[in-house]
Design a protein that fits this description.
Elements (H helix, E strand, L loop, with lengths): L25 H15 L8 E7 L5 E7 L2 E2 L4 E6 L3 H8 L2 E8 L4 E11 L2 H10 L2 H9 L9 H14 L11 E15 L7 E8 L2 E6 L3
Helix pairs in contact: 4-5
Bound molecules: flavin mononucleotide.
């Protein structure tokens, strides 16, 4: 290793985030930053990839990367297996946090709030636009369960292929969408000398309270 971990650092100089640029509610700013990320981040970075943190019944946190698949005035939608570890956590504790990191833009967005399942109709509408392999995979994979080996997974996929040989797979009951309803959204713009800009929105009844946080 020519560079030690302690020596790894980058100064952030690309942009700033001032109160003048920040609308009274966070979704407009998120959409604007997301558009910037789509236009700026280079492949293979997926701008809609985020880290989702959930907390299990024992109060222990867990996080993993997921893809954001929908955004509207209600909140941030992602899809997964309802029987997965995250699905169990969300049953025990319906609060979660997601973090987006767009390194080229030197930006991070943190979102926190309650999570609810989307309607079966909404899950099915998204399921039907997934490629066939992904739809069969959702039927085949008992996500987060221990499996013997790769062969077991391939066997489960083969069973799903036989089951759906003559009909299009519908959305499995154990699979679907979740929507995080934001209560807090923080925008972080890297600045020089670690004096970053942080604008924090907290839900305040029907409105949003916007405050600057120290970096
Ligand atoms: C780039 C990337 C995108 C992913 N997207 C999803 C996704 O949209 N839904 C999903 O269930 N898992 C997705 N995963 C897999 C999850 O990180 C995780 O392994 C899986 O959901 C099981 O998590 P759990 O055991 O905590 O429930 C993705 C992983 C990566 C690296």
């Amino acid at each position: 290793m020519t560079q030690t971990l302690a020596d790894m650092r980058r100064d952030y100089i690309r942009d700033g985030l001032s109160e003048d640029q920040a609308p009274p509610e966070p979704l407009t700013l998120f959409k604007s930053w997301f558009t910037d990320a789509v236009n700026t981040e280079q492949l293979p970075v997926e701008p809609n990839a985020m880290t989702l943190a959930t907390v299990d019944a024992d109060g222990r946190p867990h996080c993993r990367v997921l893809l954001l698949k929908g955004l509207d005035d209600q909140g941030f939608t992602f899809f997964s297996n309802y029987q997965s570890a995250k699905g169990e956590h969300l049953l025990a504790n319906p609060f979660a946090a997601m973090t987006f990191f767009w390194p080229t833009l030197e930006r991070q967005v943190r979102i926190e709030g309650r999570v609810e399942r989307v309607s079966p109709a909404e899950s099915n509408a998204y399921f039907q636009v997934r490629p066939l392999g992904s739809r069969l995979g959702a039927w085949a994979s008992p996500q987060s369960r221990v499996i013997r080996d790769r062969g077991e997974l391939e066997g489960l996929l083969a069973q799903a292929e036989i089951r759906f040989a003559d009909e299009a797979p519908e959305c499995p009951p154990h699979w679907g969408g979740y929507r995080l309803l934001p209560e807090r959204v923080e925008f972080w713009q890297g600045r020089a000398s670690r004096l970053h800009d942080r604008l924090d929105y907290r839900r305040d009844g029907e409105a949003w309270l916007r405050q600057r946080l120290a970096p």
